[in-house]
Amino acid sequence: MSALEEIAAEIVDCRACPRLVEWRERVARDKTARFADQTYWGRPVPGFGDPRARIVVLGLAPAAHGGNRTGRIFTGDRSGDFLYASLHRLGLANQAESTASDDGLRLRGAYVAAAVRCAPPDNKPTPVERDTCLPYLVREVEALERLRAIVALGAFAWDGALRALAELGHRVRPKPRFGHGAEAEVGPYVLLGAYHPSQQNTFTGKLTPEMLDAVFELAIAVAR
Length: 224
What we know:
The chain is of the alpha/beta class. The chain has one domain: Uracil-DNA Glycosylase, subunit E, CATH 3.40.470.10. The protein has eight helices and six strands. Strands 1-3-2-4-6-5 form a six-stranded mixed β-sheet, sandwiched between helices. Helix 1 (3-12) packs antiparallel against helix 5 (127-143), helix 4 (78-89) packs across helix 8 and helix 5 (127-143) crosses helix 6. It is globular. The two termini are 28 Å apart.
């Protein structure tokens, strides 16, 4: 078993945060009407992608009826549709859609994870829950030996990435501020910011396909 496989197995079995455990399992039990006939994953969601990745894409947490349903991060929800379409256009994914964990999606040179691995109520993890989950990201960064660029989708992921890199001894002062297109060198890595591909951002035009593509184009250039 590889280091990434070991981390994934530990993530899936984690029950460290009582509030998150209760919520993810309640959502999986009660479901929502449009997915009433499906069996929900209802567990923590591990990272996914190429073990030789030079780019990590970091989100906030699994969606209640997305990753918490399908068992794969950014899979089965509108945010994932927007994200994987961009990765496909840039050659980092073999297909533009991600509907289920067995849909054939493969990433090339990229690895997708979340700062918190369980779906949180109102999509808002607490600081304690964030810090409890942090060691998993630290270990993933260590295991991805070719990693060069981290794309943080939103301010929460940006902060999580900085905290993980600080745990590895890479600190930056003053703390770089998040913004779409923000760029910061942190030790041997380059941290890039992008607005989260939530419907709140994509439906309002705050984040367009061209804007997200531009960040991934930069990540590819940095990671070469």
